[in-house]
Amino acid sequence: MLIGEILKQYFNVKEEDINKALEIQQKLGGRIGEILIQIGSITESQLIKALSIQLNIPLYNNDEGINYEEITEKIDFKIIKFLIENQFIPVKLTDTKISLVTNDPFKLYVIDYISKNLEKNYEFFLATEREIKELAKGFLFFDKKEVDFVVEKDIEKLKDMAFEAPVVKYLNELIARAVELNASDIHFEPEQSRFVVRLRIDGVLHNFEELKEDFYLAVVSRIKLLSGLDIAERRLPQDGKFSTRIGSTFIDIRVSTIPTVCGEDVVLRLLYRGKLGFNLSELGIESDHYEILKNMITKPYGMLLVTGPTGSGKTTTLYSILSAIKSSEKKIITIEDPVEYQIKGLTQIQVKPDIGLTFASALRSILRHDPDIIMVGEIRDTETAQIAVQSALTGHLVLSTLHTNDTVSSLFRLVEMGVEDYLINASVLGIVAQRIVRLNCKNCLEEINLSKELVKYYNIDEIYEKYSDLVKEKKFLKGKGCKICAGTGYRGRIAIFEILDYEEDLKELFIKTHSTSSLMQYLKQKKYFRTLREDGIIKVLKGWTTLDEVLRVS
Questions:
Q1: pLDDT tens-digit readout, 83-95
Q2: In whole angstroms, what is the distance from residue 98 CA to residue 362 CA?
Q3: Which domain holds residue 523?
Q4: For the chain, what is the domain count?
């Protein structure tokens, strides 16, 4: 019986998947089973089971264990090395027979080699590639030269595979698909029994497909070659980058690898060059907040902080502010780690801690370059905080970020970093806290009803009444899911904000009470001030996003 028929009968593989694999086979070659794995129709384990049925070769069961010492005493290591390289692992030896485990019993040259070099009968068992590699590890305590030879040969094989047409084509098409879906990251994740590719779309990770181990390793090798990384280094993290073009879109791709117990985990961050406008009015800032923020960033000196967790859009907000205030009359210098986007009109510095170029040292140096506006990517330590505050006090507008949950806690974070209260009051103009929520897909919108319990629990009617000037029409909407939004119901993202205008009365209260609750109680009397969740609910009332999204991040 053909392998395709077995897969349909025993593993419910669809006819259209078989036909798709046949088309790919005609164009690029390869085996049907392997192609079906690559396109995500089956797993390697399913293919091995199907081969077992087709060829009447039993699946390997390791209940008895393997006597590696006996095998290596009775078989020349050069023969063992050849078998391991070709994924035929000797697991049992008697006077008349050798038992071998493989995932590819079609390698006739290996069978011929066994017949010529081992005067024994042979029998085969089937296992997945991962299982075979685990079995092979038992042989790697022998002469190091021999082991290195195997490793070097494996690396050369991966280099060759990285330039093969299917690997090149796959990576190009994957990046193109990621761009089409507006993905920000591509994750290559090795797990215990599978190799997964996931895409981060609108801030949320989605499983995309699974790859066979050999193909996964070849794709990772190609990524490492493109980004100038050491293909042989799998024990330490590495960082690199490369650029590509998809249609008319130029993309800078930042690459990060880390070693895990299951293999190398690789993440590609896609940076869309020229695609983002960094326009303040497009971030989701409501009109009342926009006026407050505009007043802060047009001040000649002082410090504005943007706060939130990693991935909350702080860098985009800072770039948008800089784009709004840059002019030929101002010198703007940024210190970043990393420089994610290169923007015309800015002098941008990449932090390099390994050579001593830290945020603090760079900040100290740029003060001698006569800047008007300074952007520090992140205040991470006491030294950077103190220099940033001093810069704000000596005639510079300083923009930076902190990792805190809300606006008020940022004041106390500066205190923890050793900045004196009076210096905070003299330097800080305001603080912006933010999160990112997904926008409803405009192509598949439908009106929904929220239960009375939810409306009451989250004070939605009260928020609507308080901010009715911002919400022209109350309407709860949600995306049903369509082809354009890949069935998620969301497409695009927007920020929700909490903005603190650090006015004189608030400064006095901060010095007097040093109490988060006292400051929050005061702020709640101000109409402009609202929490992240309250600002998110305004977006829900406008139909821009859903309550689920707001609750997910706030």
A1: 888 889 999 998 8
A2: 66
A3: 280-437+493-529
A4: 3
